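Team,

Forwarding the record for the chain on the shared tracking sheet. I've put the sequence and predicted structure together so nobody has to dig through attachments.
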Amino acid sequence: MYDIKKDKPRTKVAKLCKLSGLYRVQYSVFLGTLNENEKDTLRLQIEELIDEKTDSVYIFPMSKNELRQTVLLGQAFDKKMITDEVKALFF
């Protein structure tokens, strides 16, 4: 989850999240499964892009059980998309 003031670093952070295999559930909120090394790599890449004086980035660890217990209201994301399974779409 992030709040990044400038467009360019915000766009780059979003791309990094997607390239890491995270699924966008809100404009500035991503969910997915990362191992410890992937999480550390993403964190270091994001640290290089943001301005620590004006921007905020939150990385919250969440177990699969906690995700299953999450209450979703309104136009919520599909929890089935956030799994360890490789998903492929063919058009």
